[in-house]
Amino acid sequence: MTQPNLTGPIVGNPPIIGNPIVIGIDAGGTMTDTILVDQDGHFKIGKSATTPKNEAEGFLASAEDAADAWGISLESLFSGVNVVLYSGTGMLNTLLSRTGRRLGLITTKGLEDMILMGRGLQAWADYSYADRLHAVTHHHPDPLVPRRRTHGVTERIDQFGDIVLPLYEHEVSAAAKKLIADKVEAICIMTIFSHVNPVHEKRIAEICREEVEKAGADIIVYTSHEVRPVIREQSRLNSVLIEAYATSRGRKQLKGIEDVSKKYGFKYGVQTLLSFGGLTSINHPRLHETMISGPIGGILGAAYVGKLIGNDSLICSDMGGTSFDMGVITRGQTRIENEPLMDRFKLNVPTLHLDTIGAGAGMILKVDPLTKKVSLGPESAGSDPGPICFDRGGTEPTIADCDAILGRLNPHYFLGGKVVLQVEKARRAFQEKCSDILGVGVEEAAEGMIDMLESDANNALRRVISGQGIHPSEFTLLSYGGSGPLHLAGCSRGIGFKDIITFQFAAAFSAFGCTTADFMRRHSVSTQHDIPSRADEATLAAFGAKVTTVWNDLTKAAVDEMIDDGHTREKIRTVPFLMMRYTGQLEDVEVMAPLAEINSADDMRRVIDEFEAVYAKVNHRVSRYGEAGFTITELGLIATADKVKPVLLKRPLGASNPASAHKGVREAYIGGRWHKANLYEMDLLQPGHEVIGPAIIEHPATTLVVHPQDRVHVDEWTLLHYTHA
Amino acid sequence: MLDKPASALRLRERLLDSERLMEETGCYDGITELTLRNQDPLKFETLHTKLRAYCVSAREMARRISASPGVREVGEMVVAIYTPEGDAIALSNGIMVHVHTMSRFIKWMIKNGYEDNPRIREGDIFANNDAFIGTVQVPDVMDVVPIFHEGTLVGWAGAVCHELEAGGITPGGDVCLAQERFTEGLFVCAEKIGENDEIRRDYVIRCERNLRMPIYWVLDEKAKVASCIDMRESVKQLISEIGLDYWMKVSKEFIEEGRRAQLARTRQLTVPGIYRGHTFYGHVTAGKPGFQLLGDPDWLYNIPIEMEITTDGKITMDFEGTQPWGYHSMNCTPAGMDGGMFVTLTQHMNFEGLVNDGAWMATELKLPHGTWTNPDNEMVATATSWALLLPAYGVFQRLLSRSFVARGFVEEAFVGQVNSPMIEMGGESQYGTPFGMAHFECAAAGSGALAIKDGLDTAYVGWNPESDMGNIEVWEQSMPMVYIGRSIVPNSGGAGKYRGGCSFVSTWLINKTSHLRLHTSEHSSRVFDNGGMCGGYPAPTCQKHRAVRNSNIHELAAKGEPLAHAPGIDPHVSDYERNIGGDHVVVEGPYITSPHKSGDIFSHSYNGGGGYGDVLERDPIKTAWDVENGFLTREAADQVFGIVLKDDEDGYPIADIDATVERRAAMRKERLAKAIPVADWIAKERGRVEKADFAPEVKKMYASAIKLSSRFTREFSEFWNVDARSIFMPGAKP
Fold first, then answer.
1. How would you class A131 by CB atoms within 10 Å of its CB: exposed for 0-12, middle for 13-18, buried for 19 or more?
2. Please, which residues 30-59 of chain A have a Cβ atom closer than 8 Å to chain B?
3. What CA–CA distance (Å, rounded) separates A579 from A432?
4. CB-CB neighbors (< 8 A) of B352 in chain A
């Protein structure tokens, strides 16, 4: 199903000259968004429904939609581009629907039940506050490998890497044979402390491969120390299982996308996005690292826009139907989350940190007749059946219904008019189920609900900022996602941001973000350097020397890999980092090294000072405890190489009167009363234009509500800046 | 309604005033009308959500700072925001039990003249772990900081962590060897430990010099203070937005609204009336080293509970008839009893909406003076009060559940919480340094069954609904022993149509130490402490500790011989005894013994929950899955549930439905054949009662209850138609 082209000229009106050089595609749960970018920074958006069974179909339909908008054929599109970037949901769907590979597991004897016991926290970890307390709702996720195909082998290695119990090889052979007879498609191996000393895992894998070969079977063997050499066995186990379980179909999907791209003339390999924000080829050996990549695109896009506008402290916020995702870039740095959850499994995949709350236009509203308590969500009406006003069978009022009731959404211009909103129907249901119970008027209640949603988001933003130890006035807020601009005013009010920006292409911002990513490698090794609190000059210098040696080795490894990928040395940039804590703590702080090498005790002190500064910023200075000493648990290096990126076009500012974009007037309820709000077509706004509220700026894929006396001005990049009165 | 400016009264008077208003009006602080809520219900709701978000994120920050796997790995922490008088307005997730214990701590300081000395000023930090002031046990150390707005005290921020080492007579925190207060560990009794947002150096030195593993306590202290400051600053910011008067009013309305919501919830979910239940707890220490002979070494406690639900929704729990306090570590203070009540309510009725102290105010506890629930001697030890608290509040859960079922809310019924004793250890670490730690993997026991499905396996404890056992690789960094087993214990959930959740057992090989002290807190011995419901069986009890000293495990391993990784399913011979040579030890009750060394093996199991409904109604197909996956044994399927299993072609169990139907029909007949009329049974048992024909511990249990409670004596006498006093206390004056 191809949907109509949802874009006008994205960056104003200049004639399109070049051909696209980058295709960025973000396949979400419902829609696949495409963005095409040319050398001079023009871009176009395409949209199509996601096709989970064969993602290549949705990919192609979406690409075709964008190509149509550009006015070129698929052949000229694909034969002309240098980069095809695809971030999909196939692997996640495989996991959610439990349709992955038939797995077997070999683990340390005595711990086979880990599959059934899980981490206790997996029984409640992604629940709402209420359900976390309400214990009868807790339950374990279904394991990815059944207990009957889990075999223990006698062995034990301790935290120092010393062998406590030797590996019983005869038990390994027997387990491998049994798994082969059980017709598994992959064997996973996870033993305790294999990330410190992998000797047993390696030997188990060797024996398994021998047995597989003897049996003439086609079974892949995965070891946890290769997939994820990081402490915490449950997370390492989940990582290796998910890699084995879900990525093969995902790999096929990606291969299918590469195949259709090549069919239409694409000359290179398709790239996908890592959860920590870099690009990698679809042949990446640890493909589960790309499973949480969707929302990551937004953070990358934000970083990119930040550079353009000259602010490196940004909060990006993505509001869709169900969730409000917030990412932070503090003085150019993004935060890495080391233990994210995926489908209720705890993983230890480094992921760009996102804070998420349940807040979106699809959230279902409830008023308890007994206590009159109002609750937003956590359920969402999703796209099926959707809000009541969509008239596709939804019966529970949602925030989108409130937006429609209050005239903020144009009933005849939703998705460019494809969906006609049934406002009266929404109004009747809302009155019956919400406002009458509360005993207030329909408009008042509907605005109250929206205020609650926006206030939740507003508060979440404040919390995110307060965790950074920086005043809000240093931050610029970037708002995107289909519902972002619609609720921007309330979400951002009173926080005191330096600037608030949204985009004509807000609805496809994540896809845009993907196209701004660079090629990246992140290499690291676990270490255990305990630096005493009263270390003398010589000791500090010696620690520094050790660190420098590791960094040099990591640099060489990362640079060599990238050179092999065809990047030239002079284009590769490297930044070393450390994971540090006070000795005895259990959580690290990621510290970007203030120097490329540590050559003296003073250099080492600078690194420690940097750690203490970052730590105090995140955890408050009262919690510093230098008396305990310092531990470096991981040394790492990030290597990047540039890729062609979209260039936002800068144009001179014109007149401030936006009359050329004016399309009429509509009644909209804002701030407790109805207003005659001016309507503008978003794509027709030009650099220099200024819109004063009450106004509604419409786009087929999004709507920006400008509250009375608030202002929106369009800058020379055609970014929309929102200013509160 | 408090309409006066916030600063008009001193705190102490304000607190007394508030209590008087509650007494007079029945409403919190005399708030008979929720004016602000009625004015703008959405603003009201939004503000509370905001406060809760402050708490949740402050707790997350603290968890990043902690060095303790208890806090970082399994979340043994909670934070909350209080009114100036110390009533909780909003709280985080975590160990909810402490929200109200902190409230008691704040009120205690106010009532004891802290305004004058040591004074309460901006930037001050107060700490407490004295259960008679307001906590449950010594390792639960709480910190609070006052919140000032332009010189006026407008609230408090508080945080509690459960410490893994408290410096008691044995290492760890749940010190079962403590028989009086003086051996429980380092006490901080409502002490000002910091000023100007800095923890005093001399306080830190005291901690560093009196604890076996000071980094846990000290970094947790810093984590708590950081989180309190974080909440304080957020509240101050909020007040500057909404104004002081609004804050002072709305914070109290939140609590009154919480109280009303709890009453409404009770009216909605339950049937008013009087409910009774009880549980028992057995303690066995005779001959164990270290216990002083201050009382009976082996004893039995009866915990009868009467719950009354009134038509307006108030819940009262009465512990009349339970045992006196004793020279053991399991006494509890009213603060601890409050905490148990609060955490249970938040899990069943008060989990949404304005979760705060209001719920607690809609309830009442009757704790007879002199019993373990309310000792009349403040020298008693409370180091392991959870051992009695958990079974007691398990009874509360079953009483509530009966009421939920009666009202038709079958899916809310929950057989509930179980005791989950922890291991404590200390001595020489694998790094060659002194250490001490409580192992908190116990925070993931099996839950009781539900009325619609089996209990949760290895993922529930009553004191913290966010239960977890943590990663092996993290625990092993803190102790000189390595796991050679962590597995589900078959049959550990009580049997029933829906079985209780199963527990797990860990087996360790001691490694890289010549001196490891291992102690455990309490499993109930010889009697069940966790009941079942509606015909379901109680959870198994009397779990034994097993150890192998001087084992030959390394010799066996060198030869590739089979080892043992769990006790196994043979009740007569464990797998350790079957496979491993050495000195085998089996201990009932707390494990208190001489130090272990490298090469020894130790195992410890946690508890499963009680069952729900008749075993003969259990689903045979689910049972086959249970047997295959080690939750039940074939023997239990056959003998307890009457389920006949056969093997599929791969040797995995599948249910034989026809044979099961037949077997169950036979079992029902057997039941009928064995049954006797109740009147006959009572007559027979009355004969035993008249002669006091009971085990010595049972006799003492009745005697002590009769001595303390005339009501118990009267009801016992009436039921059995005997003179209880003359039977159990012959020669005593009436």
1. middle
2. none
3. 55
4. 129-130, 134, 373, 375
DSSP helix/strand/coil, B614: coil
Strands A150-153 and A103-108 come out as parallel
| Domain endpoint, select from A451, A471, A494 | A451
Asked if residue A45 is part of any domain, the answer here is yes
The answer to whether residues A592 and A694 belong to one domain is no
Two structure tokens written together for A203: 């030997």
Q: pLDDT tier at B56 (50, 70, 90 boundaries)?
A: confident
Cβ-nearest to A371 among B46, B353, B482? B353
Q: Are A462 and A335 contained in the same domain? A: yes
- Shared domain for A465 and A487, answered yes or no, is yes
Interatomic CA distance for residues A171 and A188, integer angstroms: 15
The answer, for B401 touching chain A at a CB cutoff of 8 Å, is no
Is A618 inside a domain boundary?
A: yes
Pairing outcome for strands A572-582 and A662-670: unpaired
Whether residues A28 and A106 fall in one domain? no
Sign of CA dihedral A374, A376, A381, A387: positive
Residues of B in contact with A152 (CB under 8 A): 565
Whether residues A108 and A224 fall in one domain: yes
Domain shared by A510 and A531, yes or no? no
C-alpha dihedral (B635, B639, B642, B648), degrees to nearest 10: 20
- Considering chain A, what is the average pLDDT of its residues? 87
- Taking an 8 Å cut-off on Cβ atoms, the answer to whether A138 and B460 are in contact is yes
Percentage, residues of chain A above pLDDT 70: 95
CA distance A627 to A582: 9
**What is the domain-level CATH number for residue A348?**
3.30.420.40
In 3D space, the residue among A642, A637, A638 whose CA is nearest the CA of residue A519 turns out to be A642
ipTM of this predicted complex? 0.94
Within an 8 Å CB–CB cutoff, is residue A450 touching chain B? no
In chain A, positions 153-192, which contact chain B (CB-CB < 8 Å)?
154, 156, 158-160, 164-166, 168, 170, 192
Nearest to A117 among B198, B458, B485 (CB): B458
CB contact under 8 A, B68 and A112: no
Residue A578 lies in a domain: yes
CATH number (domain holding residue A621): 3.30.1490
Domain range for A384 is 363-451
Q: Name the A residues in 57-86 with CB < 8 Å from any B CB.
A: none
* Domain range annotation of chain B: 11-260, 415-613, 615-674, 678-728
Q: How far apart are CA B644 and CA B666, in angstroms?
A: 13
The per-residue pLDDT for range B440-475, each reduced to its tens digit, is 999 999 999 999 999 999 999 998 888 999 999 989
Option in A118, A166, A620 nearest B229 (CB) = A620
Q: Which of A515, A538, A560 is the last residue of a domain?
A: A515
* Count of domains observed in chain A: 6
For residue A549, is pLDDT > 60? Answer: yes
Q: Is A423 exposed, middle or buried (0-12, 13-18, 19+ CB in 10 A)?
A: middle
Same-domain pairing of A68 and A119: no
Please give the radius of gyration of chain A, using alpha carbons only, rounded to the nearest integer.
27
Q: Which residues in chain B have their CB less than 8 angstroms from residue A170's CB?
A: 560
CA separation for the pair A351, B383 (Å, rounded): 42
Q: Is A391 helix (H, G, I), strand (E, B) or coil?
A: coil
Residues A109 and A213 reside in one and the same domain: yes
Question: How many Cβ atoms are within 10 Å of B92's Cβ, its own excluded?
Answer: 27
> CA-CA distances (angstroms) from residue A446 to A428, A429, A667, A704?
12, 12, 15, 18
DSSP code of residue B460: B
User: What strands, in cross-sheet order, belong to the sheet with B423-428?
Assistant: B434-439, B423-428, B516-520
**How many contacts (CB atoms, under 8 Å) link A and B?**
266
